[in-house]
User: Fold this.
Amino acid sequence: MKKRWVLLIVLFLTIGFASVATVLTITGRVNINFNEEDYQIYFSKAVVDEVDKSYEVIDPDTRKTINYSTKDLSKVKEQSVLEYEVTNNSTQYDATVEVVCEAKTEDKETANEYVTINNEMTNKTIKAQTREKGKVIVELQKVTVEPIDIEFTCTLTVNPVGSEELKEPKLAENSCRDIEIPNLGEGNKLIPIVLDENGIATRVEKTDTNWYDYCKREWANAVILNDRADLPSVGEVIPETSIESYFVWIPKYKYKLWNVETTNTEVGKHSIEIIFDTQDTTEDPGKSCATPKTSGNIGKCEDGEYMTHPAFLAFGGTGFWVGKFETGYRNANDKDSAKVDNTDTSQIIIKPNAYSWRNITVKNIFDVSKDYENTLESHMMKNTEWGAVAYLSHSIFGTNKEITVNNNNLYKTGHAALPSTNQSSHPGDNGDGSSFNDLWNTTNGFAASTTGNITGVYDMSGGAWEYMAAYVAESSVINKSGFTFQDLSGIGDKYFDVYDKTSNASSFSKMALGDATGEMGPFKQYIIGGSYNDWHNNWYEDYSFIVEPNIPWFIRGGAYGQGVITGQFDFGRDTGEAHESVGFRITLAPSN
Assistant:
């Protein structure tokens, strides 16, 4: 049975004649009883007798009420017209509208004698992320010596339609409530925690209902401790000094495709439609498609269909854990001492305010990541896994906008630019790396999180570039990474995203659907802040370059000094060699 909600427009009408002014007041009230967080219907415009009075008559706090007075009505057939616009900002639902305007029971006889009132928004469909116009037209049919007060109520019955009619996906508002308990793996190494706004971690049980709530953008967090002997009891605070690494759970989901051809000019940045579901999509034309998983292959997928994100297919679980911060180097006392090309897992820390581990080859990144927590399937982050986090961030379950850059020039993790410096390419601090940025557990710091609060993932914009376990096939310079093709073929594709050997800097169609590269198109090329004619995407104009045989490894997220062209949708490439500005991130994929 379909759920409904009612939008009420209440009209108060006073009628007079000659010099007696007629005043019409319309009060619209929206009563939403159907997933208010996602079902966002509001008034976005109000034109009163051809004068735009939106800012005057629409309640600025809720945008769900219109209060206005008409011009004077003093002769028969004279009209007063309210032209209004209703926006459906929902991400999952279209809406059909039926409108009936009636006077209150005690006023019906008088109303029928003196006025007519019509609302033109009848049998309208308001699609998700669109708006529709309507009119309330009041016409005076007869004047009277004495003023008459009449109250009308226009009832707009709105039925949600759209996603509930798809066979594959569940409705989003149900799916975020039905997420399976995150997989903590074996060995009790991952400890579930909740974080308060100051970053203080408290141990909880995995069945605790307060551990996470993706409907409210509160993502599940867990930690690995330096020493299991330091483990406090459930409900007790875990000292920050006892924590070695923080991880965030990314539940398995499918998302609505919008740019499989990479050149769609109709759809720019928008709230990505996500439905949490552990079942893989199948071919159901017009509704869902099987995930292609390979570079340059869109399979049978079309825009508007749902597809299981490929990041969840390689390891076969119900989600994966992503390092909450860029990987840091434990014994580093400054940015230079964090430039180490080794595979010492004892040096791994994933914490805020750590020096990001950089200047390490791809092979050593791969080895140290895989050896970190082997029983939890720890591994170097893949390009598709980055895409899964980026897409979730730009949905109603995340911050739903570009993440603030970490502009700390000492490569410290978990920092965020202050609002006045966020768009600057030159942080310009005083050398301590902190003059123009805040830490993760501040109001400004939350803007650098994928959720806009402390539960999300940090350092996905700025900080250090991050090497991905993603390369172009048959590169002649693959050995610069420390790998040989024999090494890579022995490991297999489970741990890597492999891109078409014919790809080049601007061959965005060589993307793998879901990796947050080609789908961010169409792309344009222009110079910004220098002499390079760089490629930029269609979302936030982030820096955008595809791998090619002589520059075969993907890097993501940009560097601290790139300013406006960095973000979670920034992607570039490098040789796989050790570079002082490139670090890495670790993910975990414990088996079921």
Observations:
- Residues 1-26, 28-37, 162-171, 422-431 have pLDDT under 50 and may be disordered.
